[in-house]
Amino acid sequence: xxxxxxxxxxxxxxxxxxxxxxxxxxxxxxxxxxxxxxxxxxxxxxxxxxxxxxxxxxxxxxxxxxxxxxxxxxxxxxxxxxxxxxxxxxxxxxxxxxxxxxxxxxxxxxxxxxxxxxxxxxxxxxxxxxxxxxxxxxxxxxxxxxxxxxxxxxxxxxxxxxxxxxxxxxxxxxxxxxxxxxxxxxxxxxxxxxxxxxxxxxxxxxxxxxx
Amino acid sequence: xxxxxxxxxxxxxxxxxxxxxxxxxxxxxxxxxxxxxxxxxxxxxxxxxxxxxxxxxxxxxxxxxxxxxxxxxxxxxxxxxxxxxxxxxxxxxxxxxxxxxxxxxxxxxxxxxxxxxxxxxxxxxxxxxxxxxxxxxxxxxxxxxxxxxxxxxxxxxxxxxxxxxxxxxxxxxxxxxxxxxxxxxxxxxxxxxxxxxxxxxxxxxxxxxxxxxxxxxxxxxxxxxxxxxxxxxxxxxxxxxxxxxxxxxxxxxxxxxxxxxxxxxxxxxxxxxxxxxxxxxxxxxxxxxxxxxxxxxxxxxxxxxxxxxxxxxxxxxxxxxxxxxxxxxxxxxxxxxxxxxxxxxxxxxxxxxxxxxxxxxxxxxxxxxxxxxxxxxxxxxxxxxxxxxxxxxxxxxxxxxxxxxxxxxxxxxxxxxxxxxxxxxxxxxxxxxxxxxxxxxxxxxxxxxxxxxxxxxxxxxxxxxxxxxxxxxxxxxxxxxxxxxxxxxxxxxxxxxxxxxxxxxxxxxxxxxxxxxxxxxxxxxxxxxxxxxxxxxxxxxxxxxxxxxxxxxxxxxxxxxxxxxxxxxxxxxxxxxxxxxxxxxxxxxxxxxxxxxxxxxxxxxxxxxxxxxxxxxxxxxxxxxxxxxxxxxxxxxxxxxxxxxxxxxxxxxxxxxxxxxxxxxxxxxxxxxxxxxxxxxxxxxxxxxxxxxxxxxxxxxxxxxxxxxxxxxxxxxxxxxxxxxxxxxxxxxxxxxxxxxxxxxxxxxxxxxxxxxxxxxxxxxxxxx
Lengths: 211, 769
Prior knowledge:
The complex is a heterodimer.
Chain A: H1 7-23, H2 29-38, E1 44-54, E2 62-71, E3 75-82, E4 86-90, E5 94-99, E6 102-108, H3 113-126, H4 130-136, E7 137-144, E8 147-154, H5 157-160, E9 163-170, E10 174-181, E11 186-196, H6 202-208
Antiparallel strand pairs in A: 1-2, 1-11, 2-3, 3-4, 4-5, 5-6, 7-8, 8-9, 9-10, 10-11
Helix pairs in contact in A: 1-3
Chain B: H1 2-11, E1 15-16, H2 30-45, E2 46-53, H3 56-73, E3 76-80, H4 88-95, H5 102-109, H6 113-125, H7 130-134, H8 143-149, E4 157-159, E5 164-169, E6 172-181, H9 206-221, E7 226-230, H10 232-266, H11 269-294, E8 297-298, H12 299-306, H13 308-312, H14 314-324, H15 332-357, H16 363-390, H17 401-413, H18 424-433, H19 448-460, E9 465-474, H20 477-496, E10 500-504, H21 513-527, H22 530-539, H23 543-554, H24 561-566, E11 577-580, E12 585-594, H25 597-601, E13 608-612, H26 613-673, H27 679-701, H28 706-728, H29 733-752
Parallel strand pairs in B: 1-8
Antiparallel strand pairs in B: 2-6, 2-7, 3-6, 4-5, 5-6, 9-12, 9-13, 10-12, 11-12
């Protein structure tokens, strides 16, 4: 029961961070309030993303791109278009990744409590519960006109074992996210064309349905 | 002997306190027996503590303190909070091809390499891809990663930075501490396999239980922190404390009662003191004999043994009882000589009764048999050999005779034995109401507080193995693994229907060799396709990494069970592997949270058996209960035959009749009072028979002078009732049912014993040997 792997947990951490950062508008006291005031697009948004992972021992970065839709009450739809198409739906309870409708990966908070711990942070972010976030991260940053930048340093636990720091920057929406991993790898996200989510297409509606 | 005894006490009495040690394995099959023992030993040594707090760091901090405290106590050989960082990845990497997931192999076998590689890449780029990406150059298909993640039990969380296992529930995060105690809860008489902490193996569950309790209460001092613990030591410690308290209560009660009774009868301090001598010798010999035969004495034996006082004191009291009706020429030597046949037959029947206990393969009953029979023989020899020498100048005091005279008068007032027939109706009704209960749970009680704590732990941590398991056997390791596979295939639907919450088997990770070889061949064939190396290149792997991957695949090897158990990855499976047995090889398949036992018991696979120890033991208890009843009947006949040469058919029958009536009466009382018969009360019946015959013999042997016999028997039965009566008040259910049967039986045996008297008109002549 206890010969444990860390891979799932690492992955979960990553999801958590990702979600965190997509939606983030966190910082402490005045700083956090300043950032909060600048982030106007929060509860329902859509846009494009580009993910670039730099991994030691690889000749080139792993680059993927696609579109995302975030709805506060439904979760996050992460649709990768290139180089290999797949889509993932992420909620506080479950993560399901599918290729052409076939599930290739699935995480359930019921059977993998680590996911629950991550989604707790996620919910804190969505609910603007800074207290929860500050318990897990040391937050610093600056505000410059419409723009803001925050640096989150994990205090301990799951996050600390995985990442050295997270850097977020944006204006009315989150524009960039960098994760500096402990092992020297790094991941860089760029978000563009972020707009209010509006109504979902039939395809998106279908994808949001978990089972 | 006293030197031996002194030595024994100096080293400390090797008292065994685990109640389970009194039970037989419940299995006649040696392989199943070993499986049961292996499981119990592992579970017996293992203690689990859960330290809960609102956040993981708080729980881990509190658990750190608790673990340090446990380690400091010195009661544990190992305390694990932070899991050892064995290089699981390295061992998984070496085995990734042979032990690849069946789904992967199925896909590749059907030529769907393209599809497989696309899915792999999708995951690599997907939200769960970060670890895959990090390991890409070492394990591009994440086979080792999959292998490790399959070892991660559902519902268990793991904090990678600290290495602590976390559980979630009751609105708290719980850190798991495992503590392996130095004392073996299931000690196989000193066979401790060269354990370096062997010196402490005798210290019992007390230090373990004390250390755990201290850690629990310390942890709970921190606000918001809760702590739970489970382990065999907690139960055995409590049970042994109860048992020890009862030994004192029963022992002291018996002594005081006996002394008081003798004062009433003899009015001589010296008589009392001398009656206690055989008792002391008996106790000493019994302890010495039991500990040298069994290596230790179980507390329950001492509880039963405390009641031996009631019997061992009898032989002395008979001699003094004889003095009361005596004239001036009375001498102890003469009394002993006259009483010797009665004493001898008394000892013979009692020892026969006790030795009959040894027939059942219950270590506990065997200990009681040895303890009691050696004790009684020692008491008898002391009286016969030492009394005439020690008591040469003893002058009796006859005031106590008035006591017996009043009782004899009472007997005389009973108009006729014929009225006994009237009692037949309630007796028959009682016998018809008699029922039995052999459920193992009636053997011991679980402390409600401990029980509740264990229920909470079970709810938080649903993977604790149950007492029931599957035993899988085969001619070799290969066949065992294949049969496990067949079993798992049948268990899958039950898992889906939640009739059992989880299953643990070695073959879940380690398939049989044939499958492993096929796995490697399938991977080597499929991945030789150029699409694979193109895919690797596309992802950015260097030529060096691609070549290394190719070389690793070409060199892929299978692994046998023995080597698997030595790897970081497979070490945890040691519990499941029984290895070589009398018949071949065997393994265990463990189950958690069984909801439908019948569905499991109905599974039929070659070489697979469902082992249910609780049920098996209950069956065994029932079998031996019936055997005890049959033995009672048989020994009745045997004793009848034993008496015939001396007393004739009529006399022998009269000696037997009081015991038969007493036994039937006691059974009828059980029936009337709704007390279920069990193994212990059935064996108690044997004791009733033996002692009842004892009383009858004294009446018979005393001839027409039944006053002395009446006094002796009255003292006997009173002391016996005192000690066994106290046993009936025991909180240990086994001791209680034993005590109740003796209480009822001996009371009745005393009432009926005078039936054996030689009637005043009898022409029989008393003989002396």
